[in-house]
Amino acid sequence: MDLATQPVTDKNRDAYYWRLLATAASFTLFGLGGVCLRLVVFPLLSCLPGDAQKHRLRARQTVSRCFWFFVRFMARTGVLTYDIQGAEKLGRPGQMIIANHPSLIDVVFLIGLVRHANCVVKQSLWENPFTRDPLRRTEYISNDGSMDMLDAAADALKSGQTLIIFPEGTRTRPGHAPAFHRGAAAIALRGAKILTPVIIKVNPTTLTKAEPWYRIPKRRVHFSFRVGADIDPQAFAALGPAPQASRKLNDYLHHYFIKELAEDERSTP
After folding, report:
1. What parts of the sequence cross the membrane (predicted)?
2. How far apart are alpha carbons 77 and 26 in whole angstroms?
């Protein structure tokens, strides 16, 4: 997998209108890709031999490859640059990957990096005609806030799947620290063998909850992904009853991300 990126330089401030056009082309490609997956690719994949687990794995690998192609398309056309540190630590059995959520396409990067990953996704995406069928085929988990969701996520981890989850549940508000919900910690305590944080930084901010796709920044965006050290959830499970352990783990993760993001900010020239 090609993780190379272009350096961020002053010349990236140029070509505003080209980047706007390339951004429009990127999102058009994303929409057309969803239609193509639904109408052509997945029907063909369903004709291949194999059990339900094999079909699910093929669907996830297909979505992952499409997402990585989308990332590379945006990079090649000059919409963004990126760097990724520690990608080799992602994708282990029973691993729960947690990340902050500064941008709309964070999940595209992470699913693109981990070919076979499961993911907890927003309920609204199950109602989107471009994403509904891929989500059904991949058997990603809907974040509907129910106990069934927690059980499904924990069971996926227990079965050896890698699970990606954004504890904030929605994109971070610009200028605010991430606020984590306790559901991710509860899932980790119930099913994860290992918990791996991914710190995501986007400079300048783009595709936040308050920004439409066409409101691009004046200079090219740089995405930075840094995989942190593993965390053993069982170390927190021993701290008390499940609700108390979940609260302590969630507090730890919250402060961990605030500290790491602040350090990244100080180290940025």
Report:
1. 20-45
2. 9
Rounded Cα gap, residues 158 and 50, in angstroms: 22
Return the pLDDT at 9: 46
Do residues 248 and 186 touch, judged by C-beta distance below 8 A? no
pLDDT of residue 40: 93
The DSSP call for residue 174 is T
pLDDT for 12: 47
pTM: 0.90
Strands, E assignment, 14-166? 80-85, 95-99, 118-122, 141-143, 163-165
The single residue listed with the structure tokens 């520690």 is 86
CATH architecture of 12-267: 3-Layer(aba) Sandwich (3.40)
For 237, residues 6+ apart whose C-beta sits below 8 A from its C-beta are 189, 245
Q: What is the pLDDT of residues 74-98, one digit of tens each?
A: 999 999 999 999 999 999 999 999 9
Q: Provide the 10 A C-beta neighbour count for residue 102.
A: 23
Instruction: Report whether 90 contacts 230 (CB < 8 A).
Output: no
Report how far residue 85's alpha carbon sits from residue 243's, in angstroms, rounded to the nearest whole number: 33
| pLDDT tens for each residue of 172-200 | 888 888 889 999 999 999 999 999 999 99
Cα separation, 40 vs 153, whole angstroms: 29
Q: Which amino acid is at 43?
A: P
111-127 core/surface letters (b: 16 or more CB in 10 A; e: else): bbbbbbbbbbbbeebee
